[in-house]
# Entry
Amino acid sequence: MTSRILFLFSGAANRQRIMEEVARGANADTALRGANHIAGAEFIDVEATVRSMVPSWLYRLLPWQARSIVLYPRMFAYDAIIAQDDLLLGYFVSLGARLLRKNTRWFCIVVNSSVLIRRHAAHPARLFMLKTFWRSYSRIICLSHEQLDDLARIGIPRERLVFVPFGIDADFYAAAEEAHEENFILSVGRDLGRDYPTLLETAKRSVHTFVIVAAHKNLSADTPLPPNVSVRYDLSLTEVRDLYAHAKMVVIVSKDASVPEGSDCSGQTVILDAMAAGKAVIATDRPWIRDYFTPGKELTVVAPNDPDALASAIDRLGEDARERARMAASGRAKVRQAYTTKAFANALERTISFVSAVTE
# Structure
């Protein structure tokens, strides 16, 4: 019998609108986490659905962590639930499935588990609560081996941890029109793990022009900028895609992995997007990168917090068009081969099928 699969999405994004835009080539399907590549999969936008189910006064009173509990009775109609957040709902669904002998299994995609472990290391009660949630799930989908190892280290059974490489919409970024190389360096990212102060210090040491696509939360509009740097906010993905198409290269500067801010794999989506767009990439070294790429082959990595090293790397690659082309081709081929949303969806389906087989 075919499993009934549900994707739970948090945040304000309207997934139905995204699906419609994807169908006409106006958006990437990355935010759908593979849901559109799994036949029959359903999805719920948690915030919008809860708003439609409860009075506005009650919605405002509910803590955001607890709002999704309103959906609890609906969850047992599904065999597999794939979620990124909603940890509390996942715990209650997992507990209820065992007590009520339901077939519902919770699959949690972790994005900031390592950050949470580091952040709450000095708070035993908070860490205990997180461990209780994580231990209850059928499987935890890790986007890096660092996440897997950190979760195992705090006592999450390894048999419940699965490494699944993340995937992006490679076709969307390959579809940019009139792609050609212009004389600017592009940096993209709204994640709190970005290290824009180091990038700005790097720009002061460089003769290159830099364009940054950021959010006000990680690069405020009143931040003093060197004269060779411009910042753009609130761009659509089609606008970002056009910038990729015209950039000389893409530079992603992240904070040291030990800093408990942002996502565990900070820079991951943007690096994959840039490679799919056919651009050479320089990035801050992070543990996840070696799960996906060979530094020096598909991208250049530099140490964190080192504007001199970053400026030197930019200068070397900026002066070597042949190396940029070689690296871009290598990165693009790797992404299209292994790191697409379709590959991600296939891995999720295999994991669900395996769990179903061993629990029957």
The chain has a mean pLDDT of 95.
